[in-house]
Amino acid sequence: MIYTAILFGSFFGLLAIIFGAFGAHLLKKKLSEEQLQSFETGVKYQMYHAIVLLFLGFKLNSELTIDNYIVYAFIIGVILFSFSIYGLVISSAKNKKMKFLGPITPLGGLFLCLGWALIFYKFSLLYFI
């Protein structure tokens, strides 16, 4: 699990830089201001959670089930949240909006919240025990 967190964290970080540059330079001329802000939201959340995954990869114990759940929640959350935003923005810019992605974004957000809630739960147990 340690390597999974570091692998996905570094990959998500790499993609966040690429997608951020792509949005800032190539998409800026093709997207509305609102679409560009949505795209940037996807990039920001992806980068935030890439950094969290890297940190977790060095700090968590891969033999603890809750630690594995935390990492998986963040990986699934980033994929569902950020990548659905990218798909929605790019498809709507081409006037072929993939509406099925709309409900996926909040589901990804729930997974991100779950990851944070599990971290809170894990460390609140350690603090109060």
From TrEMBL:
Pfam family, one: DUF423
Topological type in the membrane: Multi-pass membrane protein
Main location: membrane
Alphabetically ordered keywords of this record: Membrane, Transmembrane, Transmembrane helix
InterPro entries in alphabetical order: DUF423 (IPR006696)
Cell compartments where the protein resides: Membrane
Entry keyword Magnesium: no
Similarity remark: Belongs to the UPF0382 family.
Name by which UniProt lists this protein: DUF423 domain-containing protein
Organism: Polaribacter marinaquae
